[in-house]
Structure formats: structure tokens, C-alpha cells
Amino acid sequence: MAAASALHSIVACSATGGVGSRRSLYPSATCLASRRARSLMVRCSAESDNQEQSAPVDTPSTPKNNPSPPPPPPKKVSPNFTDILAFSGPGPERINGRLAMVGFVSALGVELARGNDVASQLASGGLWWFVGSSAVLTLASLIPLLKGVDVESKKNGIMNPEAEIWNGRFAMLGLVALVFTEYLKGGALVQM
Known about the structure:
mainly alpha; transmembrane
């Protein structure tokens, strides 16, 4: 292939008067000048065939409509209990996020209504409410996953699984920050 392009260059230079010309002391310089004046043409061919094939060149004015690939099939959720509650499974972060969202809102609500901090809320009977609501929300979150329902299939508008995960993460951070701030302050964050 390299030999063919070198031979093509010599033939092209001799055709333009570069090699063997009496007009120039340096035939290669004349050949370079004549090559620069011409337009550049690039040809590509497959190495496996010895036949030269030329492909038609598409112009930018004729766009092609390539069909988009079909969407990937929905991911099947394993209804196995250990797969759901695995570290990278669909259950742990979602359940903890839901519990944190309910816990954060209820802790702030009781704090606004009664003026008690989170530690005094848990000490005055709130621990049993926490355990009971945690059990109910955990079961309510696990039952669809154990039936094989994929959480990602329930997308509609702003209520989507990604938003739920992020809201749960912020609620977890908010609940920890609320307890830590009340501990440092020595009382309820919001007092009426």
C-alpha cells in the first residue's frame, strides 16, 4: 500500500512537470508546490480485497434518519429476600430513606406542637411509635419487591424513583443534623 502511494506520487509529480523538468533544479520542490495547488483527494479501500471499491460520499445537505435502537428490556428484580436486602439491592436505601422522611417530618411536627426535642420524644413513649411505624413501612416497602415489581417501572412525572432516593438521603442527613444540633444546644431546636 505504501509502495503504491509512493509510486502514485512520482507519477503525479512527473505529470505536473516536477521530475525530469529542466525548469527546476530541485524537482521535489516543484512537485510539492504543484501538490499544494491541487485539491486533496483521499481514497479508502479494504486491505482484505485486492479490488478497489469506491463508496459514495454523503453530502451534509442530505441527513440520514437512523432508527434509534430499541429500549433495553426492563430489569427483572429477583424476588429473593437476600437479594432485595443485599448491600446493592433495591431495598435498604429505599426503606431507610422512607423511614427517615417520615421520622424527620414527625419529629419536627411533635417538636413544633409540644416543644420536646427528639430524645425526650423517644423517652416519653415515642420509641414504640418509632418501632411500630418502622415495621409497617418496612413491610409495605418489601411486599412489592418480593412480588417482583421493579421500582424503576413506576415512573410518572416528578414522582420518580430517583427523586425518592434523593429525598430520602436528604431526610437522613436532616434527621442526623436535627439530633446533633439538639444535643449541642441542649434542648429543642424550635421552641414555641
